[in-house]
Specification:
It is a single chain. The chain is an alpha+beta fold and about 750 residues long. Helices cover about 55% and strands about 15% of the residues. The protein contains 24 helices and 17 strands. The protein has a six-stranded mixed sheet, sandwiched between helices. α7 (about 205-255) runs parallel beside α14 (about 425-470), α9 (about 265-310) packs antiparallel against α14 (about 425-470) and α20 runs parallel beside α21. The two termini are about 30 Å apart. Keywords: ATP-binding, Cell membrane, Membrane, Nucleotide-binding, Transmembrane, Transmembrane helix. It holds the Pfam family ABC_tran.
Amino acid sequence: MQGLPSDSFPAGPCPPDLPEPWRLVLAAQLAADERVLGWLRTDLDAHLRYGDGLVVLTDRRWLACAADAQASRSWPLRPDLEAKLQDHAGVGSLELADGHARLSRWRYTLERQPEAQRLAAAWQALREPTSSGAPHDAPAVGPAPAAPRASSLFRLWRFARPYGRQLAAGLVLTLAATAASLVPPYLTMPLMDDVLIPFQNGVPIDYHLVTLYLGGLLASSVLAWGLGWARSAILAWVSERIGADLRTATYQHLQQLSLQYFGGKRTGDLIARIGSESDRICLFLSLHLLDFATDVLMIAMTAAVLLTIDPLLALATLAPLPLILWMIHWVRDRLRHGFEKADRVWSEITNVLADTIPGIRVVKAFAQERREVARFREANDRNLAINDRVNALWSLFTPTVTLLTELGLLVVWIFGIWLVSKGSITVGVLTAFLAYISRFYVRLDSMSRIVSTTQRAAAGAKRIFDILDHVSSVPEPATPHRAEHIQGRIELSHVSFRYGSRTVIHDLSLDIAPGEMVGLVGHSGSGKSTLVNLICRFYDVSGGAIRLDGTDIRRYATADYRRRIGLVLQEPFLFYGTVAENIAYGRPDATHAEIVAAARAAHAHEFILRLPHGYDSLVGERGQALSGGERQRISIARALLIDPPILILDEATSSVDTTTENEIQKALDNLVRGRTTISIAHRLSTLREADRLVVMDRGRIVEIGRHEELLARDGAYARLHRAQQQDQSPADPPWDEADDDTDEALDAS
């Protein structure tokens, strides 16, 4: 096991930023010269009950401490040790294992995830020390992400290809503008040698010659300005369209990904990628890339001109160039790590905003404003710390390059004066050299500054291509079968489904006839919602098949298939807009009469007319201007309007009062008529009219029948019914079973 440099972590056994109670506990466990590299305060025990603990990584061992300091365990560091972070459904775990077995596992809520990530970074650094000495920060859970490279920017060519002609024109204009800008220094040589110096020696000024040279200076300057303006306008036009196409392609690809992808992502992170990252790339393409290309051309063409005028003086002029290029390379390698970390931390800030702004009612209801401000401040402080380290490096690099360019000018003066004194060159040649070298080093300094923006853009491009490279787990068929004249027969044949290595649905078979209403019942976690997600093809089955009218649903185009399904959720989601727009969401071309008819059938017409602007009333973000029952009836009207042959009701009445439930039930009676319906409900009374009830337990069907039949069997359904009648829930499984299930779930993540 390799160690870290002695200055990689603060000295002393107890880190100062560890909370005081744990510092006292840790002080009793550590040797005087033992160095703490990282720690994690766990807040869950093996049974996922709240309990405090501390896991510490030192330069000698892994150490686990209890809050009472009475029980502790340690594992000496050795090459075969492995530490792995996982998270699943809001629960994180840290597992320590060797080559033979798992040694221990600690669990924590994702509130402690930053500590876990910093601990993972310390472990990674301990196992694989970096030669650069660059600071380490917390990686995302799991393997550390690859550092962004400038090669990510080359992948943008697929978006630039449609604008190839404009780019070619911009390149030609750049060449021409650069060449025109090199003319004025060249004309200073004859001005000095043929006009000014002879005049000082008593020769009269040739005004015709002066006019010719000054006219050339003016013409080249005006030409360079015009070409530069045309170049900037064309390339800015192209870059804006590349940025717009990039945003559209990323959002379009995001819409095509399965729910499995979104289950592991934060809303704020995705918003930041599509918004700020694409803007950063667009700014790079429109400004900095153009400047970079101009700088490279200017440096190359200036070097060629200098070598043409006087090779010996040119070599002296270019002497600092290799050192500057090496510094650019050295700084680039460190900046790209820093900017990637800064982007991840910025996503944390966006995530806090995406959580708290939509949930501001809950924040205020529980008086947690200070807590949320503290969360934001913590993320903001991490962003500040990372940017401080990047800025410290950059603030050293920039003056160093400037110093080297000044030294280069000094070398030109010294060597040039010596050559003039020897008669090897004229004063005009030296003057031209100084003019050219000033431009040369200005461009070199400018090019070095672009390193920062290039690495920022590369980091943004990498994060966007992380989305574009992700392949949906629900693929489209190569030759889709058209979903026409759907009768609504659903057949589930030996269906199985796994989350990772955990099987959730086990060899399930069920045949639902057209127009039949089937109720899915069972305790929480029995697989009801998973089964509905499979039928909607939000996920694909791991084994077996689901058929619609005898055709495997994987043969249908996903959008074509889902248009045949009406979905009413427990928590209906309404978009910001009017009532009419939300009802017509599935059919934007619906007429006003059709919208009103759907609202009447959903028993929503009366309360809509009582709104200030009727069907044109704004519902607010996520429908906050309406009550829960009103939102639900609008969602039912939305499902009615598309007239689907298949209807899925997922706890459509579980979160409303009895009066509202009766209103919603009337709307549902209109909705289910003549449709194949699958309904999930915890209130068993709402399913008494179902043609069949399917009782599920642990991903399997245990009973099928009508309400009265299942009660007479006195089986699983009867027990559920009695428990509900007594206003009780079925007993939870013993802790050892629950822990086994939790282990499987965490292993599967």
